[in-house]
Amino acid sequence: MKAHTHETQSTITPERALEFLKEGNQRFVNNLKANRDLLEQVNATREGQWPFAVVLSCIDSRTSAELIFDQGLGDIFSIRIAGNFVNQDILGSMEFGCNVAGSKLVVVLGHTKCGALKGGLDAAQIEGLGMDNLNHLINHFDPIIKEVIEDGEERSSANSSLLERLNHQNVKSAIDDIRKQSSTLRKLEQDGKIKIVGANYDVETGVVTWL
């Protein structure tokens, strides 16, 4: 499988870009990697890059987008932050990926058993550890937790139902933030030039479910 070129990227629709990722995850789950010469792709992309998708995922070591979607060098922009949420710098990276570099798809990828979301649920205990920057990060999830937690429900990472509802809502919240906070990406989507979609990766099976 060759690296994408400007010509191949220009022919990819947002719908086809999504199919590329779906097909790649199916290969990953079936342990049938596409045949790639990565050193050849290094050579092919030395003058430039033409990725077809931007994937925002968690830093979790089990969720490398290139691996779980079976993609090669130059195929996707991979943005990673604990808890896969957006901020201004991440939005700027997405705008570059789509409006400058020509990517056709933005994926917000959550995953099961997310440690960052567990930290958000257990914020009281985490804050006691005295890590100021980590505390800042996990407090990002507090408004989303308040959206999904039910009256009288235990707020704890041990509450697996709450954790998974939070995971899904966090992906949806990130997508809402992209559309609200980036007029560039919102217009590209409205004009049909990109798609913005959410997905969830199961760390036990390797399967990506599209939300």
UniProtKB/TrEMBL annotation:
Q: Which GO terms describe its molecular function?
A: carbonate dehydratase activity; zinc ion binding
Database matches in SMART domains: Pro_CA
- What does the entry's cofactor note say about binding and number? Binds 1 zinc ion per subunit.
* Matches recorded under Gene3D superfamilies: Carbonic anhydrase (3.40.1050.10)
Q: Which InterPro entries match?
A: Carbonic_anhydrase, Carbonic_anhydrase_sf
Entry-linked CDD domains: beta_CA_cladeC
Required cofactors, per record?
A: Zn(2+)
**Which top-level group of life is the source organism from?**
Bacteria
Residues binding Zn(2+):
C58, D60, H111, C114
Q: Which UniProt keywords apply?
A: Metal-binding, Zinc
Q: Name one Pfam family in it.
A: Pro_CA
Q: What is the similarity comment for this entry?
A: Belongs to the beta-class carbonic anhydrase family.
- Name-wise, this protein is Carbonic anhydrase
Which species?
Answer: Chryseobacterium taeanense
